[in-house]
Amino acid sequence: MPYDPDSDDPAIKSRPVYHSPAHLPPANDYLCVIEPAAREILSTLLRQACYRRARIVMSSAGAGRETVPTVVDRDVWEELARRLDDALETVTVGCRLVVAGSEGFLWDVQTFALEKGFVDEEIVLYPVAGQGRRVFCVHCHTLAEPVYVSPVNCPNCQMALEVRDHFSRRLGAYIGVRIDAEVPSEIPPREVLS
Amino acid sequence: MSASLSVRVASIETITPVIKQFTLASTGTPLPPFSPGSHIVVTLPIRERMCRNAYSLLGDPADNGLYHIAVRRQDASRGGSRYLHEEVKVGDRLTVSSPANLFLPSWEARHHLLIAGGIGMTPFMSYLHEFRRRGVSYELHCAFRDSATGDYRAWLEQQAGQRLYCYESERPDFTRLLAEKPLGTHVYVCGPDAMLQAVIAAARDLGWGSGRVHYEAFAGPQPGRPFVARLARSGGEIAVEGESSLLEALEAYGVEVPNLCRGGVCGQCRTVVVEGQVEHRDSFLDDSEKQRHRAIMPCVSRAQSDTLILDL
């Protein structure tokens, strides 16, 4: 389909559309992986029924705060990955993976889970609203998070980046491209991202 | 259909009273290579019409000089297997398609659970060659209707050893087979439709995502009631005999319809129906599409009504 900027459909096909179900899909086992900011979402889901087995692994990112950290923290992720690996040792096929958190977190966990042997249909994603975007600078390959406005300056190379709706599932990030490449220093006013 | 190849029947082995193995060799340029799980479509001239049957390649994909197929004699079918059993001799030329693969192993799987019914073991024979090379984890469950499986069973025992589980005249308990499997297990089933449906249902009930459930029906088109196919665009009219599939009748008439599996699975030959009631025999269209009677898979499905008008 040709790109139509006036269409109501998401014109950028790579931008994820989340069909987060209001109730957890039926299963005998759930592994819930969340960021602290998603505690309310998860407790609402878990209160709906009595589940045979549900385990929760919570990231320490932003522990003690209600927002996600301002930079992608490898140490936090690696510590979470170790705990996920431990939990996955006893997971058998049929388990549902429930992931709730900022958008970048959802795709980090999804990518990790697919590598460990989950398939797409066994994973449900619950994005927490208002957590901003993760942005990948195509010029210096730096990730910036959370980003609420466009253009934004890359925290590493300082380039003014237009935050595109093009999304990389591998990186869990939107693509940031230099906005004044044609006419240097011609930078439009900032807009708040949806 | 993929490009056709002329091959020579290099040898014929009798595996059991009802199964013969045909070894096919190139008549000139080397045969194209294939991946595990591939099949070829063999064209057989039967009483002035062409019968085209798909057979799995059971040899070693790394040995690309020859194609091996196993043909089970199906007396209640349309004559293709009978023709191969009774008419085809060593040295004969046959026309086959290039290999196509709708049943490739998912190499990202941590463990492969293979389930075969009878002659449905043939695609897994090509898997085992590649599994051995790659050293992957697998188990193979084979259900046989009778014990007459001859050399194939001995070969499987030698290849798979402790990983082979055989079931004679009893159906495996699929729910038990699929329960408590380590994350990263994929299941593959090849056999009669009832077995496919039972495995698919067991996997779904246990919460397996459809992406880890793979299946291939070995059943080709079954005979049925004769009917007339009318072509809305080109204006032709084709009498489809009871022994011929609609796809074969279209091909004999000179109408090329894209196709791959010839078993109602892959969806390539989907054709729009303008008028008429379809007798759906495929596993590609979903229930609501089948109820609308606006599409047909001509490789296996036929007409309920006397006439079917196709958008061709």
Automatic annotation (TrEMBL), chain A:
Dimethylamine monooxygenase subunit DmmA-like C-terminal domain sequence ranges: 134-177
GO MF annotation list: 2 iron, 2 sulfur cluster binding; metal ion binding; oxidoreductase activity
Pfam families the UniProt entry points to: DmmA-like_C, DmmA-like_N
Keyword Transmembrane annotated: no
Keyword terms, alphabetized: 2Fe-2S, Flavoprotein, Iron, Iron-sulfur, Metal-binding, Oxidoreductase
Domain Dimethylamine monooxygenase subunit DmmA-like N-terminal: 11-123
This protein's record includes keyword Protein biosynthesis: no
InterPro entries, alphabetized: DmmA-like_C (IPR048037), DmmA-like_N (IPR054582)
Domain of life: Bacteria
Protein name listed in UniProt: Uncharacterized protein
Source species: Billgrantia endophytica
Phylogenetic placement of the source organism: Bacteria, Pseudomonadati, Pseudomonadota, Gammaproteobacteria, Oceanospirillales
Automatic annotation (TrEMBL), chain B:
Domain 2Fe-2S ferredoxin-type: from-to ranges: 226-312
One family name in Pfam for this protein: Fer2
The keyword Glycosyltransferase is annotated on this UniProt entry: no
Residue ranges constituting the FAD-binding FR-type domain according to the UniProt record: 2-106
Cofactor(s) for this UniProt protein: FMN
One GO molecular-function entry: oxidoreductase activity
Keywords: 2Fe-2S, Flavoprotein, FMN, Iron, Iron-sulfur, Metal-binding, Oxidoreductase
InterPro entries membership: 2Fe-2S_ferredoxin-like_sf (IPR036010), 2Fe-2S_ferredoxin-type (IPR001041), 2Fe2S_fd_BS (IPR006058), Beta-grasp_dom_sf (IPR012675), Cbr1-like_FAD-bd_dom (IPR008333), DmmA-like_N (IPR054582), FAD-bd_FR_type (IPR017927), FNR_nucleotide-bd (IPR039261)
Protein name: Oxidoreductase
Organism this protein belongs to: Billgrantia endophytica
Organism phylogeny: Bacteria, Pseudomonadati, Pseudomonadota, Gammaproteobacteria, Oceanospirillales
